[in-house]
């Protein structure tokens, strides 16, 4: 009986064809999905949470033989809020994560009233299978022009908006709360959601995660104060620095 012999070239060609088919279908091939323990294998990849990268290096230890040059500890959607280890010269250096807001809505929602009414709102960034949401700064040039006030003096001879009324409230400058008021010079934030380009992982890969396809993926780098642009190069994800108007 003749035995079947598989050619190495045939095996490699089959593997290459599978990767090409995955790319053509828009599958997330930039980073492997790591399923949580107990997660059902029947669930689509987008519905399975990614575990944080197992960054086990220590500050000061040698990185001369390391295959990666950066790794990230933490589950926050913003690298700024996680501990990042980076190979600098012969050894690992640590950047401690900042204290960031983490009160994310339980589910993806493009309209989440009150989500940005938290301390340190500019650091609130949340990752969902559908996209990344967070508190984006509102720039004055992005806001609609206010309608002119009614300055009809009326019978009293004073502009209507300066009439204190019977209870003394409602006058401009009386310190009462009005919709949209904020301290002079303070940044206002609005809940905003963004989605990465087709082919990119739906949730941001951790820095140092292994990847296959060279690509650059935007997770709100110039939308949020601590959004990220990450690039797959040399088999690892790392952050790309770009100038924004923050």
Write a structural description.
With 246 residues, the chain is mainly beta. It has a domain at 52-140 and 186-240. 7% of the residues lie in helices and 20% in strands. The protein contains one helix and nine strands, in the order αβββββββββ. The chain has one helix spanning 8-24; strands at 70-73, 83-88, 91-95, 125-128, 131-138, 188-194, 215-219, 228-233, 236-240. A three-stranded antiparallel β-sheet has the order 1-2-3, with no helix packed on it. A three-stranded antiparallel β-sheet has the order 4-5-6, with no helix packed on it. The N and C termini lie far apart (72 Å). Mean pLDDT is 73; it is low at 1-52 and 153-181.
Rg (C-alpha, Å): 26 Å
Helix content percent band: under 10%
Task: Return the average pLDDT rounded to an integer.
Answer: 73
Q: Termini, distance in Å? A: 72 Å
Coarse structural class: mainly beta
Poorly predicted spans? 1-52, 153-181
Number of strands: 9
Strand order of the largest sheet: 1-2-3
The 3D shape can be described as globular
Number of helices: 1
Strand content: 15-25%
Q: How would you sum up the major sheet?
A: 3 strands, antiparallel
Taken in chain order, the helices and strands follow as HEEEEEEEEE
